[in-house]
Amino acid sequence: MAIAGQIEYQITVDTKGLKSGLDTAKKETSAFASNLASLGKTGAKVLAGTIVAGATASAGAIAGLAGSAVKAYADFEQLTGGVETLFKDSANAVMEYANQAYKTAGLSANEYMEQATAFSASLLQSLNGDTEKASKITDMAIQDMADNMNKMGSSMESIQHAYQGFAKQNYTMLDNLKLGYGGTKTEMERLLADAQKITGVKYDIKNLDDVFNAIHVIQKQMGITGTTAKEAMATISGSLNMTKSAWKNLITGMADDGADFDKLIENFVESIDALGKNLVPRIGVAIQGAVKVIAKLAPTLAKMIPDLMRQLLPAIMEATKGLLQALIQNLPTLLQVFVESVPMIVEAILQVIQGIIESLPTIIDAIMQIIIAIIDTLTSPETLKAMLKACITLFLTLVQAIPQIITALIDALPNIIESIIAFLTDPENILMLVKASVQLFMALVMVVPQ
User: Fold this and answer.
1) With 80 as the cut, is the pLDDT of residue 123 above it?
2) Is 97 in contact with 60 (CB distance < 8 Å)?
3) End-to-end CA distance of the chain
4) In terms of C-beta density within 10 A (0-12 exposed, 13-18 middle, 19 or more buried), how is residue 402 classed?
5) What is the DSSP string of 329-373?
6) The pLDDT value given to residue 43
7) Contact (Cβ atoms closer than 8 angstroms) between residue 265 and residue 249
């Protein structure tokens, strides 16, 4: 029996079955690709298309989607085989119930079939092999389980364990259903008796179908029956469960070449629509509520802020003062670190300069291209007109600023003169200037013919 979310593989080397295996893989891969394309085509008008469009944007996402589809389809094949073996001529009816379970029970088709096969053998035995009746009672029981979970707040796992226990005449988990009955055989008999009082039908604890029918009667009497189907369209949690289950069915259908893919998309879109109708109004109400809360709190907060600032400001200022004092105390250390870093900074600058020298041919080529582009731009009438206008504006601005510039130059002139004199009176600097001038002159002489 398959376990949801877990697949076991056994790999053997069989050259006789190699061709058959390759044919099967080819068929399943073709089905996945075909259905994925169909999803992209049909879903362009709906949210499903948005999901596929997002998935196709990444090869990794497609691989993950394909992997999930193949895993889900592997479970689907195994579970379908189990349903066909147990329900025989009524297998199609069970499959139809399974396909609708996303809405009636908040379960995917795989999850439905897994639960159906968990107790169907005992159910069929109690019904003397009547597969048609067994399929109907199975659907009723699974819906009752989902309704109980949604209405009473029990986990689906605990409810499933209870029903699987009933199939083995183990009633210790009857109290998991929270129907007011304890986990004993005596309590189950009391439940059957209460159901008999309501319907007038005698229920036999030895027959699993009677047990399931009696539980259905009690849950209907308590107003539990039909909760899942109602909540699927009317509540956020219900429509969310429906959407999750419809998506799982859609994933499974991607790897199934026999799936009614358009129907799967339709179911998913219907679920998304229900979720949106339930969720969007709540979001609007929540936002309005938040605005009202803020509006109510604003005057109170405004009154509190001055007192809060009076309390916090001294602490903030003290902390700031401490931080500044710490920086001042550590300033010599920080300066020493900077001084120690100067050689590294200079070395880095020299490396940059060396890199520029090595890159000069490329830089010169780029400069030539820039010059050509600039010339082409500058020679256009529009550019010349704009430049002329800008130059006039600049000139007028500079003229207006001349007094300030001259004042600043006069103030700085003594320092400038002292620096120049100090530089020129250094023999090493003079020698370096002479050498540089000679090198520059020779370089110009060499390059002028070119």
Assistant:
1) yes
2) no
3) 88
4) exposed
5) HTHHHHHHHHHHHHHHHHHHHHHHHHHHHHTHHHHHHHHHHHHHH
6) 46
7) no
